[in-house]
Write a structure and sequence with these properties.
The protein is built from 30 helices and nine strands. Strands 2-3-4-1-5-6-8 form a seven-stranded mixed β-sheet, sandwiched between helices. Strands 7-9 form a two-stranded antiparallel ribbon. With 675 residues, the chain is an alpha/beta fold.
Length: 675
């Protein structure tokens, strides 16, 4: 087995995809939710595993623990070490630790094209001489140097593990003494970690080794982990002086630096971020949403009409026609009508991520988050939450500090995910047709305020420790890869469609059944006499402070949102279509054009009881209440505790109810005072 090892953002995964093509399997590492990729290098029999991106083997995070345990315990036949040649100092730190493992290795200097543009010149012969392993330049993105790499892999048997002594004489002497007491092929690496008193290497420690370390530390008065890191960086600095030179391009101000002068400006950074996010939501929910919802609805109306005509022609019963037309097509169609909006949203967010801008946002907001015991590490899950709460919660496993990790798990679901956008689009399009984009983006920024407020409260009540620091690179701005963006966007859209075809479909059928049958199991087209009405009447008082009336249909829809947030829209769609005949008999037609576009041309009583204020407060509850079952399960795994999971669900739902009730109550009071 070959192990692919490198820093995050070094181009490691791009190289893996290039080497393996479609010959790869994706799963999870044992015991964790981090992705594991294994593949076979094209035209060879060599298997290669893509280890998580790490900056060191110090096991400060889940990724580092996985990488270190794999390299120590599984001991691959070969390591391909991918270095970002534009960030050589940081990349070489990991390389020095890999050398200490004494595993055959090929060192690849990736991003040669960017190095040339930046004016960075590497003396490969000198670097090879110092590091004593094969060194070659490649560009995974431009697909250059890959054939030479494959040739080296084919001849890897000729590569012999080496040892480089670069520490001061006293540390080398201590390492030598400890190494003699360690029974492992990577004894030098383990000796260095034992000298640092690394708790995760304690299994290799004996009383003799402990005595050697304590005597050494007492004699030299070193903070060993800092001293070892310091001496490694001194050696790396020596390598750079001997093997790296710079031409005139290096001293020119880069485009990245020019852009950062604006987007990282202390006064402009946050306003620019607000403008960018406003534009994204305006385009996805406003411009695109206003055009596409009616278009998609027209398609589903045609499908429904054709299905109904065909079923009638074959003599299907009224309830089976209703099941197919209203339960299946109507329920799922109400959700899929928002796919074009999500497509634009995911596309724009993916472009920001791939360009390097999102790293700037994490850097910009880090200082703000530290004031409430969070850091820039927590911002990444919040950004992922725009797509889905499940990966956002899973991403908290990379946060080292346990307190910060738990706070982030509590707060990540408050970011409006893709499943919540249909709720916003539905109500904003109906009650605020001229300001749907503004209403949509207001919820995004409300979520930031809510996260800040709750983080402050949690800090005062439960999490009182100071935040850990946040260290991250700011990658060079680059044009996003069309292949990467396409794969990312289509993957998210397909995930959304699969949910509509599975959990939303199942929920829609259940809601249709409850809304179509009475307690005596007789079929009815009037949900006010159905089983569902009973449950709705029980729940309606809970939502009275939010809506201002006993709207049983809205209450049922909100509870369905705990299964999947898309169910709020599909449930209301099913009830809307089923109540058409009852409303028609009353001779009323309260449905405006926007609602017709979403649920058909029939009248609808569900929305006639809402006002703009109650609609806004109802949206607020659905957006900030506990997430879907999938995300709740992810919280259970991330916490490692069912008790903490239920505490989070209660906290999120309770806060959402209080916030929505406060909005409706204060809004109603202001309305009375103005009147």
């Amino acid at each position: 087995m070959i192990a692919l090892v490198g820093n995050q953002n070094s181009g490691k995964t791009t190289l893996f995809n290039l080497l393996t093509g479609t010959q790869q399997k994706v799963g999870n590492w044992p015991g964790v939710t981090l992705e594991r990729k294994v593949g076979k290098i094209k035209s060879t029999d060599h298997e290669i595993v893509d280890l998580p991106g790490v900056y060191s083997l110090s096991a400060y995070s889940s990724e580092e623990t996985i990488s270190r345990d794999y390299l120590l315990n599984d001991r691959p036949n070969l390591i391909i070490n991918v270095l970002d040649v534009t960030q050589l100092e940081r990349s070489l730190y990991l390389t020095m630790q890999l050398i200490d493992l004494k595993i055959p290795m090929i060192i690849t200097l990736n991003m040669k094209d960017l190095a040339d543009k930046k004016g960075i010149v590497i003396d490969l012969d000198k670097l090879n001489e110092i590091l004593k392993y094969p060194v070659l330049e490649i560009s995974a993105l431009k697909k250059t140097g890959v054939d030479e790499l494959v040739n080296l892999i084919e001849n890897a048997k000729k590569i012999t593990p080496v040892e480089i002594k670069y520490f001061s004489e006293d540390i080398e002497d201590a390492l030598s003494k400890i190494s003699k007491k360690v029974n492992h092929k990577s004894k030098r690496f383990i000796a260095s970690k034992l000298l640092e008193d690394d708790l995760l290497i304690k299994e290799y420690e004996t009383d003799e080794i402990k005595s050697i370390r304590e005597d050494f530390v007492n004699t030299h008065n070193y903070q060993m982990d800092e001293q070892i890191a310091h001496e490694r960086y001194n050696f790396i600095e020596k390598i750079k002086k001997e093997a790296v030179t710079y031409n005139e391009n290096f001293y020119k101000e880069s485009i990245t630096r020019k852009i950062d002068k604006i987007v990282l400006n202390r006064f402009l950074a946050i306003p620019i971020f607000i403008l960018i996010m406003t534009a994204i939501y305006y385009l996805s929910a406003g411009v695109v949403g206003g055009y596409t919802v009616g278009l998609i609805e027209g398609i589903f109306e045609s499908i429904s009409s054709s299905a109904e005509t065909w079923l009638e022609s074959v003599g299907a019963s009224p309830w089976s026609i209703s099941l197919v037309v209203n339960g299946v097509i109507g329920g799922v169609g109400a959700v899929l009508g928002f796919v074009p909006q999500l497509l634009i949203l995911f596309l724009l967010i993916s472009l920001l991520e791939a360009s390097g801008y999102m790293s700037r946002i994490a850097f910009t907001l880090d200082q703000v988050f530290r004031k409430v015991s969070l850091s820039g590490k927590s911002i990444i899950p919040f950004i992922l939450g725009i797509g889905c709460s499940v990966p956002a919660i899973m991403a908290t496993k990379t946060i080292d500090d346990e307190q910060e990790k738990e706070m982030t798990i509590y707060l990540a679901p408050f970011i409006p995910c893709n499943a919540k956008l249909p709720i916003i689009a539905l109500f904003a399009g109906y009650f605020f047709p001229n300001n749907r984009g503004l209403i949509t983006v207001s919820f995004y920024f409300m979520s930031i305020v809510v996260i800040g407020l709750l983080a402050f409260i949690l800090k005062k009540l439960a999490f009182k420790k100071t935040s850990t620091g946040y260290i991250s690179e700011l990658p060079t701005y680059k044009l996003p890869s069309a292949r990467y963006v396409t794969r990312d966007v289509l993957g998210k859209i397909w995930s959304f469609i699969k949910r509509a075809g599975t959990i939303v479909l199942l929920s829609s059928i259940i809601i249709w059944f409850l809304a179509s049958f009475t307690w005596s199991f007789s079929y009815t087209t009037d949900p006010s006499r159905s089983i569902l009405r009973t449950f709705g009447d029980i729940l309606a008082p809970i939502f009275y402070p939010i809506i201002g009336n006993l709207n049983w249909g809205a209450s049922v829809s909100a509870i369905q949102g705990l299964v999947a947030k898309e169910n709020v829209v599909s449930t209301m769609g099913i009830i809307a279509n089923l109540t058409a005949e009852a409303v028609e008999a009353l001779g009323s037609d309260p449905t405006p054009e926007a609602l017709r576009a979403l649920f058909g041309s029939e009248a609808n009583t569900l929305f006639s009881t809402f006002t703009g204020l109650s609609a806004f407060s109802f949206m607020t509850f659905n957006l900030f209440s506990a997430p879907c079952f999938g995300a709740i399960g992810a919280m259970r795994d991330a916490f490692g505790s069912t008790k903490k999971m239920w505490l989070a669900v209660i906290l999120q739902t309770g806060f959402a109810w209080l916030l929505a009730a406060a909005i409706y109550g204060i809004g109603s009071l202001i309305g009375v005072l103005i009147a």
